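Submission sheet (multi-component)
Chains listed below:
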Amino acid sequence: ELKVEQNPLFLSMQEGKNYTIYCNYSTTSDRLYWYRQDPGKSLESLFVLLSNGAVKQEGRLMASLDTKARLSTLHITAAVHDLSATYFCAVDPNRDDKIIFGKGTRLHILP
Amino acid sequence: DVKVTQSSRYLVKRTGEKVFLECVQDMDHENMFWYRQDPGLGLRLIYFSYDVKMKEKGDIPEGYSVSREKKERFSLILESASTNQTSMYLCASRTGGRYEQYFGPGTRLTVT
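Outcome: structure written.
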């Protein structure tokens, strides 16, 4: 059974600090997605990573993919309160749209 | 901007009722999806569709059916609602030319 595990599941951090969210998955996949969900809202696509070594950045967020290690990271630089949300990673190992989501990392950034 | 709309934000139904959840997208996307989201479980795929009148089972199709009579509309049907179907239901769509899915606002369904 394919598993997608995020670590940590909950993170409380101070503004201005750096941190990394980890996403491990149990089978080969070269398609990995990061989504953001604000409380009471729907999911918004952040990054699509399609190959080993892929790195994408948007503002204070940077995502990377290591397909050999089956690991993706979402790095937050100099966190600001507006980044408080739940972040989900997801994989599509068979390229058939049967996407498997992680349980999400709830990020709370303290002012 | 891609817009995915769902017919209701909140819905309360009784056990045994037939429930229809409607989803409409306005960007001519070929692919549409239904997920449910439960605390601590993340999102789980119920059904998806690549084209009109086509459907594919996701990970948890039991107790659900779907209908896609028009390209822009994808309906999720609970034939006989049960309390364990109380959940947040999210619809999404995707065009063949892109990988990411665009999500609707969700319908929070409570079955009593």
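Remark: The longest strand of chain A covers residues 19-25.
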